[in-house]
Design a protein that fits this description.
single chain, about 0% strand, about 50% helix, mainly alpha, 4 helices
Length: about 60
């Protein structure tokens, strides 16, 4: 599955995010960082990198 997420988050993280329906940055704005961390295979490093990538695009994770 293809995603627009950077390789730096890791192959496993990209794969499990795609399997959970996340392939684009705008989709991450509907979920909190805490919720992403509950997905097996997505760790703090991936969430940190994705947070920076979102910020550079003027977006952020959802705040629940």
């Amino acid at each position: 599955m293809s995603t627009e997420f950077p390789r730096e988050i890791g192959r496993t993280a990209r794969r499990v995010l795609a399997l959970n329906g996340f392939t684009r940055y705008e989709q991450l704005t509907k979920v909190s960082a805490k919720e992403l961390l509950k997905i097996h295979g997505v760790g703090p490093k991936a969430v940190r990198i994705l947070g920076v990538e979102l910020a550079t695009r003027g977006m952020n994770f959802a705040n629940y």
